[in-house]
Amino acid sequence: MKTAYVFPGQGAQFSGMGKELYDSNPSAKALFHKANEILGFEITKIMFEGGDDQLKQTKVTQPAVFLHSVVLASTIENFRPDMVAGHSLGELSALVANKTLSFEDGLNLVYKRAMAMQRACEMNPSTMAAILGLEDAIVEETCASIDDVVVAANYNCPGQLVISGSNAGIDAACAALTEKGAKRALKLPVGGAFHSPLMEPARAELAQAIENTVFSDPTCPVYQNVTASAVSDPTAIQKNLMAQLTAPVRWTQSVQQMVADGATHFVEVGPGKVLSGLVKKIHREAEVAQA
Predict the structure, then answer these.
(1) CB neighbours (10 Å) of residue 187?
(2) Catalytic option among 69, 74, 87, 88
(3) Which residues are within 8 A (CB) of 35 and not within 5 positions of it... i.e. 6 or more apart?
(4) Which residue in 124, 170, 204, 208 has the most C-beta neighbors within 10 A?
(5) pLDDT cut 90: percent of the chain above it
(6) CB 251 within 8 A of CB 156
């Protein structure tokens, strides 16, 4: 019996996130204050009091979700995960949880990631869409047939695949996939085409920051988005993280591999319950809980 700790990504944020932790735990409060110092602005004020418009800005969302997740993990008694994984941004939270990255380095990378992605979005107006009720292969084949940029980006669970690309590419793919029987083809309120070739400027920018960051031996394997397999070598972790921004998030495959490697319990650490729901859809027998 093994326990996997999983960390959410962008989209899990909500106004008031982390406030209860801040008020009730002195060590958590200290980490929140340290984050404000590292970032150079009061992210806690936005997290605790900000509206949805503020929180959904990529440059705010990513460090906010990371901070909530990592601070929450630091308060778990006898925290000894057998394995960790994170959805997109959440992979950086997972890498702090298993000691591959320090809190400071993790937060710095998250903020650089967010700013790089925001700049890439401004350079190439683009979006994402959730496709429900079709097999992955049909979605992949349809995306490949579209002239504009559009690719499979997030393999969330069977029958739920998020596609990413140019505005025209997403519109064309949604129309084609609806004709092929998709239950829904829903454009998402995101800043741009994450996990697609349109994020190449951000990938190149972040890769340089990752190269200059110390990656240590982890306390347990991380199941990375790019490979959907257990990784413990710091150099390999670093390489996979560099590729993440333009590669798909293989969440379905990651959970399936964790189960194959003995995971029976999944604990979601961070805001929301999105990953808990996805894990149950991927493996119905899994026991899921929130930290």
Answers:
(1) 14
(2) 88
(3) 43, 44, 63, 67, 107
(4) 170
(5) 93
(6) yes
Whether 283 is a known active-site residue: answer no
* Residue whose tokens read 């979605």: 139
Question: pLDDT by residue (tens digit) across 47-80?
Answer: 999 988 888 888 899 999 999 999 999 999 999 9
Residue 275 phi/psi, 5° resolution?
A: -70, -35
Domains and CATH numbers, the chain: 2-122+197-290 (3.40.366.10), 125-187 (3.30.70.250)
Residues 150 and 176: beta-carbon distance below 8 Å: no
* 235-273 pLDDT tens trace: 999 999 999 999 999 999 999 999 999 999 999 999 999
Catalytic hit among 93, 195, 254, 276: 195
Encoded amino acid at 165, one letter: G
* R_g of the chain computed on alpha carbons: 18
For the segment 180-202, the average pLDDT, to the nearest whole number, is 94
